[in-house]
Amino acid sequence: MARIPLEDNFNDVINKAQRGLKMSDAQLAERSEVSPEDLAAVKSGVILDAIIRRIARPLRLSADALEALAHKRFYPIAPVFPRGFAMFNTPHGDMTVNSYLIWDSSTRVAAAFDTGSSCTAMLDTIAAEHLSLRNIFLTHTHEDHIAALPELAAATGAEVWASEREPVDYPGAKAFKEHAHFHLGELAIKTLLTTGHSPGLTSFYVTGLSWPLAIVGDALFASSMGGSPDHYAGQLRNNHDKIFTLPRDLVIAPGHGPLTTLALEKKHNPFFAH
Asked: Which of 48, 116, 117, 188 has CA atoms 20 to 30 A from the CA of 155?
């Protein structure tokens, strides 16, 4: 697979934090002690290190991580899963979206997480690995994440699951509560409610593979997180309490952008690297 770009640039992170804190440009410029012209330039993508660092403080972002993101000094390298895990990246409009497949190597029973805009490659992997897809778990139901849901469910007969708090327009879909547990042979899956970007956005904590894994949808990206203009504080808290407390060698599988690890995000994510 070709190298997947980071989901957000440094100015995207600034804009997400500013919207979440409901801070106007005038307020941000005043609190940062920068001119409106310099603020506008940075928000448009111009790299001005001193201004970026000043803006970070009132937005409660890590200045070091934000500056590194601006200069593209960081790209996450996650460990390889030798078996039982596959990532798929499909185009949807002007972006790409990720979906995932995990399976127990002994029983060949599998689960999918989201579908992206196409499930062709996922179905090919299911056939090539001789898998039986038992469940389709939805991190959330925004269109880019479930565009191929009818096709994947029809082709496999798998049960469709989403949070009881997430609206699902699919016949026969089942709902789970937070801290629900599922098992695929030796693999264990636990649901963690990481709302903010959507009402029932769920991260799935998977153990039993070569590395602990969290499939997080749009709760978190490498060096960023999903937007949440109206529930920003709750999203930060959920991510901090439910993802950043998991094992340090955790592999994070986001809804957009490359795989990353918890250790890397603790150091390089401007929202959390404090």
From this structure: 188
